[in-house]
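User: I'm preparing a small set of examples for a lab meeting where we compare how different chains pack in three dimensions. I only have the primary sequence for this one, and I'd like the structure in token form so I can line it up with the others. Please keep the answer compact; I'll paste it straight into my notes.
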Amino acid sequence: MRHGGQILADQLRLQGVRRVFSVPGESFLAALDGLHESGIQNVVCRQEGGAAMMAEAHGKLTGAPGVLFVTRGPGATNASSGIHVAMQDSTPMVVFVGQITRGHRDREAFQEVDYRRYFGPLAKWTGEIDETARLPEYISRAFHVARSGRPGPVVLALPEDMLSAHADVPDIPAATHAAQPVPQDAAAAIVDHLAAAERPLVIAGGPGWDSTAAADLGRFAEAFDLPVAVTFRRQDYMDNSHPCYAGDLGVGMNPRLAARLREADCLLVLGSRLGDVPTGGYEHLEVGAPGKTMLHVHPDPDELGRVWRPDLAVACPAPAMLATLAGSQGAPADAAWRAAARADYEAWQQPVDLPGAVKMANVVGWLRDNLSEDAILTNGAGNYAAFLHRYFRFRRFGTQLAPTSGSMGYGLPAAIAAKLEHPGRSVVCLAGDGCFQMTGNEFSTAMQHGAAVIVIVANNGLYGTIRMHQERAYPGRVSGTALANPDFAALARAYGGHGEVVERDADFGPAFARAEASGKPAIIELRLDPEALATGQTLSQIRAAGRGAG
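Assistant: Understood. Below is the structure token output for the 550-residue chain.
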């Protein structure tokens, strides 16, 4: 006989779970007891939103479901931000939520929430376990659903009395993940379509990738001389120095790459849903009828044809298809088309001169030139991230952790998860002043668990992205976008970490070296000129353009 918390912990060990992220609550004390001698690391966080983002980042980085424990009511609703990231980013994740006792249901008891209704639109599947003896069954299903097809988050609610009750029930071993085979002749059909095209473009994105898939993409593109674009925040899916790499279809994408997307006569979409961001708000391609040959490979058959009408739809993971395509034989495409795409990318990487003694383009350029190829970079949302997207070159798979959902506050939790998984690698978080303060309390989590991340805070005193849009739509009418900030370097020191302020470009490199040598979690605050609002325009230029448009 085992209590439910012990049964749960035993299932996690069988599923290969090595680490969970949590904020403790009285509703799942039995689970905490089960974890006590399980050998599973419990990373205790400061707020459930940050904990959820850590679990999501762990899932994104490892390919195995990230595991989260939160308490009922406020704990669960706080966690919903990270669960939304996992859903939009197609990241495997299993969330355990404490729940009220079964006999108190439907009375609006203390912190009562109907999780099936609440998480229905946010999660891939939500369940509530009513019988202690069914814990192995539900947990086995949760890990299967989180990884199958299009991966995503699964939520399991754990009534407190169910979890503390005892049962004699056998464990369920972890099942081997069922691989989806490449449909017969699909790879040959793709090669035939590409051979008939004059202006082909490969678009890589979506879930389930690994270093082998990234290498296969490079080999395939090189053999057929194809330009490759990656989707938003999937830039580590291909070595950015590869001559076939053409850039990313992200927010603020290279206008020449957007034009190339429109001009292409054949698109090979590998793994991506091809949503609004890579298509420029569905303006670069016509929904339903893209006006060109579309070859769409995606692991979820329900996704194929949901928005676009592909000429060839292949229901299998992109890495499986690439493993076949990488060994294919065929005639290379027009070398001039590919070379022009590469030239456009390299021209886009030339920095635009902007005001300020510290320039984000130069900081990112320093990181590009000095970090090791296996360094992991994380970020949340904000205009500061556009500098990273535009000027950094990712060389290896698994070195970019960022939310395609555009969630603020993601960078620091993701960096902590990455450093715990890869303690020997450099982990650098880029965050805006507003973005950092969404989850900055997790710096305490980094201190507690020895995650020596380096956080670069871009401080311009603004919610920069919103200010940019505000100046375009309502120029000069500033409302709700100014920030009053702390001394971020002093804040790092208050937590026991390393902190520095950089006010000149020349000071950044030495400051980074000192932060790295400290062996502690560190914050380097960049004091930026708010005029340097975007990668290609100043605040004043954006305001003037808005007035001209009005």
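A couple of notes for your slides: The mean pLDDT is 95. Residues 360-549 form a domain with the Rossmann fold fold (CATH 3.40.50.970).

User: Perfect, thanks.
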